[in-house]
Amino acid sequence: MTLDLLTVLLAFAFVSAMTPGPNNLMLVASGANFGFRRTVPHMLGITIGFPAMIFLVGLGVMRLFDLWPPSYVILKVLSVAYLLYLAWKIANAAPPQEAKAEGRPLTFLQSAAFQWVNPKAWSMALSAITLYASSRDLAAILWVVGAFFVVSFVSTTSWTVLGQQVQRFLKDPGTLRKFNIFMAVLLVATLIPVLWPGAEQGGLAR
Q1: pLDDT value at position 95?
Q2: What is the reported pLDDT for 9?
Q3: Rounded CA separation 22/30 (Å)
Q4: pTM for the full model?
Q5: Which of 53, 106, 147, 181 could tie 110 with a disulfide, CB 3.0–4.6 Å?
Q6: Dist. CA 69–CA 127, nearest whole Å
Q7: How many other β-carbons are positioned within 10 Å of the β-carbon of residue 170?
């Protein structure tokens, strides 16, 4: 991969990873409700899980879906259902004092598995492979994987720190409640590209 192409790939990965989406919104909410340290497994699940997803997509995992078209619908339903469930959990999150004893941020495995029902993750993975590893050459796929690994580390850290800093302004339980509801609404809003008529195949790309 040439230096020019790598620069463009990194720019694409950075913009894609840093813009608001399900992962980033949940990291802000987790940082605000649980703090940075307890959100680290969630961060690592994204940082490692998403590049792993890109790798498998690059190797042709989407062909398995093509062999059984109803799987697109099933994946869409799972995506919508799980995102709604997560939005409900965020909206009803306990105050930080109670969350430390009762609440549980996403684990590493939960976060990594979530990438497979995350509409934005599918969109990013398919776009990245199509644009920068269309030949499906292993070396090209690994360059894409590496770029998103580096950028994901920066992105997850930045959004979690943002949530942690926001926590300082959410000492009042009523204010925190409003914040969590707002974050839940934003998370549900990320489903619009999935449910909007005319969305791309399976509603998983945009």
Answers
A1: 62
A2: 94
A3: 12
A4: 0.84
A5: 106
A6: 20
A7: 19
